[in-house]
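Weekly puzzle thread! Below is a chain. First person to post its structure in token form gets bragging rights.
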Amino acid sequence: MKKIPNPERQLAYLAYVNRENEFQHHGYEEEIRQYLMMQSGDPGAVEESQQMMRRSTAAALSTDPLRNMQYLFVANITLATRFAIEGGLDGETAYNASDMYIRKLEQCRTPEEVLDLHREMFGFFTAKMATVKKETVYTRAVAESIEYIESNLHQPLRIDEVADHVNLSAGYFSVLFHKETGTAYSDYVMKRRIETARNMLRYSDYSSTEISEILAFSSQSYFIRCFRRITGMTPAEYRRRYYARGIRAAGSGQQEPGWRS
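Winning reply:
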């Protein structure tokens, strides 16, 4: 298997992250406001997001009103999940909720049902973030280490490297990180790699092999073992179930031609 050179791996990871941050149909500040409000636990985020959802229907992604609303829902839950995790919500909680709402979305039969589900989804994340903001306080060193991890998931991320980045010894950093996050450093990094892999499997066209290399797994087989241990599914099974573009056509029970499973 041909390895992706490290600079290319970094570019691929950053390209994926940048695609998640694109806002194309509204001004940046207008679009992002709803997610920042949600991230801070502001109850007003729900109505703000509903208004944006209604206005977004003018930017048709499909000629079918139901499918158009489903596409918009997927775009919004992708960003809501990302902002929630970046705001401190446990990744497993965020992705499990996202998966649950995607399953509910496939049961919606009218645009109004999608809009109601959207309100429920945004309310869920907003309430979770309100709780997180009351509970989560990190020291500067741990906060900076988490930011460093998020920006370097394409790297090996040895604990001594990250400890050095925040000017602490590896031993002290390990104890401090576990105390504040409730998770061992190595487990935290693995969870974040798998959470990112889940997102890439759902919302990008990267293959499982490419994802394993981009996220610095030593081999594809090791990636598959880790992914299955944390999610209960193989990467292929997860993509078949949750690939975002695979939302079923309303009433047809079939995927659109060319949609990847």
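Puzzle host: Confirmed. Bonus trivia for everyone else. The CA atoms of residues 145 and 162 lie 6 Å apart.
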